[in-house]
Structure formats: C-alpha cells, structure tokens
Design brief:
Distance between the termini: 41 Å
Helix content: 40-55%
Structural class: alpha+beta
Strand content: 5-15%
Radius of gyration: 25 Å
Largest sheet: 2 strands, antiparallel
Number of strands: 6
Strand order of the largest sheet: 1-2
Number of helices: 5
Length: 149
C-alpha cells in the first residue's frame, strides 16, 4: 500500500505501476506526431487565411501595404511552442500601424503640422471575420494529428 510522506514530500516506495512501457511508447509516438513543424504548419495555414482576408480589406493606393501583409511561422527556439502570425512586414510598409490604428495630430521637429491619419482597420476586421473558422480548423487538424489520422 502506498502512502504519502508529508515530511519527504513524495510517495513511499510501495507503488507498483503496470503498463509503464506501453505508456512511454504512446507518449513517444504522440510527441513525434506533434513536432514543432507539424503543429507549426497547421498554425501557419490559419495565419494564411487571416492574411488573405486582410488583403481584401486594406484600401489600395500603391499596393505596398497589401503586399506587406504576410503570414509567418516564427523560428523554433528556446523551447517555445510553435507560433504563426499574420502581420504587416514593417520593413516593406512602415506605415501599416498608422492605417490600422490611425494617429492623432502629427508634427515635424520644426513644429510644422503634418496632419493626422484616420484609422482604416484591416487586420482586426480580418481576424474578427475569420477567427471561428480558423480556430475550428486548427482544432480539427490538431485532433487528427493527435489521433494519428
């Protein structure tokens, strides 16, 4: 019979666990199925869905902002879970946040007034429109991955 030793903070030695080898094999199989790349690809597909809708919502003058809306699977590192994003590449379109969120009055260092930007959101409306479909697809694909399908 097992009992808890409150002074040592652990169970005493009388425990017998049956099926540990099978459990370990199942855990190993599951961890292989749920690799960083496999889960990342599922998340990346969801991000691409958001991107495609965001590109339809952005107003186009030159097309720079539309072409800067990207999906990206962030690099693996530091033991973090896979992460995919839908975002504006700031190197290509540094004005993206001004269009999404707008701005208050803006001035040059000289004091010259250069206007304000009215918000014309495109990323948030894209997320709001796609989030349930994207999340359901991610859940469905992860379930298939876990079940080995």
């Amino acid at each position: 019979m097992a009992y808890f030793d409150m002074y040592r903070g652990d169970l005493m030695d009388d425990i017998e666990i049956k099926g540990m080898d099978e459990l370990q094999r199942n855990i190993d199989r599951l961890s292989k199925r749920l690799s960083y790349q496999a889960v990342g690809n599922i998340l990346f597909e969801g991000a691409k869905t958001v991107v495609s809708v965001a590109k339809t919502k952005v107003r186009v003058l030159k097309g720079t902002l539309r072409s800067a809306i990207i999906a990206k699977l962030l690099p693996q590192g530091g033991g973090y879970a896979p992460t995919a994003i839908a975002a504006v590449d700031r190197a290509k379109a540094p004005h993206g946040q001004l269009i999404e969120y707008g701005s208050g009055p803006r001035y040059h260092k000289s004091g010259k007034y250069v206007g304000r930007v009215k918000a014309k959101p495109f990323m948030r409306p894209a997320w709001d429109e796609t989030k349930f479909a994207v999340l359901n697809k991610i859940l469905s694909d992860l379930k298939k991955l876990v079940e080995g399908g």
